[in-house]
Specification:
Elements (H helix, E strand, L loop, with lengths): L2 H13 L8 E8 L12 E5 L10 E5 L12 E4 L9 H10 L2 E5 L3 H12 L13 E2 L5 H9 L1 E5 L5 E8 L4 H18 L7 E8 L4 E3 L5
Parallel strand pairs: 3-4, 3-5, 5-6
Antiparallel strand pairs: 1-8, 1-9, 2-7, 9-10
Helix pairs in contact: 1-5
């Protein structure tokens, strides 16, 4: 993707704002010539961006007593002996709505899946080792918290499309550019035919018009 064209469109996106509040900036990549029925052609990639995209995330840790103090860097800690309380589906649903990211102690993943999996799974919030969210004693959790705040997930669901936020209006253009390029390059590396699988690329405010990034004829 041409950086100059991307930067030009970032400016257009910013100028298109008609709202008096800060909006997220979304990157949308429409794909082609991939078969989502084939597991190997589905995309599920975590990307740690160069800059925080400006979204405040809340993290909940599911750990054993031995990691309870260490996990206090996160917004909420639920110890293993509290898991039984969350057999109440309503409580788990409320938890899933309140927190953006869940981390869990590696040796408790079976228990986490049993108690929380049916709710967190469909919301794509189950602790995932690909993002670093499966943890163990001795890990630098302060560093992990910072990393997770800059991590986005690129995932195909039922359509051949990738959508993620790469920043917000309060960020400098160059930071948005670097975040968008990091997402695009990570996606390309994971597509079967790389850029040949890209139909088009769109940039937009969450509540704004779409701008297709394409070379001028």
């Amino acid at each position: 993707m041409d950086k100059a064209l991307l930067l030009e469109n970032i400016k257009k996106v910013r100028e298109s704002s008609k709202k008096n509040f800060v909006q997220k900036i979304d990157l949308i990549v429409n794909l082609k010539n991939i078969n989502l029925k084939k597991q190997e052609e589905n995309i599920d990639v975590f990307v740690t961006l160069p800059h925080s995209p400006g979204k405040n995330i809340k993290i909940c840790a599911l750990v054993g007593r031995e990691m309870q103090d260490q996990a206090a860097v996160f917004d909420k800690v639920i110890a293993k002996d509290e898991f039984t309380k969350y057999l109440d589906k309503k409580l788990v649903k409320n938890l899933a709505n309140e927190f953006n990211v869940f981390v869990a102690q590696a040796n408790l993943m079976t228990d986490v899946a049993r108690v929380f999996g049916k709710t967190l799974g469909p919301k794509n919030k189950m602790p995932n080792p690909k993002s670093g969210a499966v943890i163990g004693p001795g890990m630098n959790l302060t560093e992990l918290k910072s990393k997770l705040a800059k991590t986005v997930r690129l995932k195909t669901k039922n359509e051949a499309i990738i959508k993620t936020y790469v920043g917000n209006q309060s960020m400098p253009d160059e930071q948005i550019l670097e975040n968008a390029m990091a997402c695009y390059n990570a996606l390309i590396r994971n597509l079967p035919q790389e850029e040949a699988n890209v139909r088009n690329v769109i940039l937009k405010l969450t509540m704004g018009p779409a701008f297709r990034i394409e070379k001028k004829k």
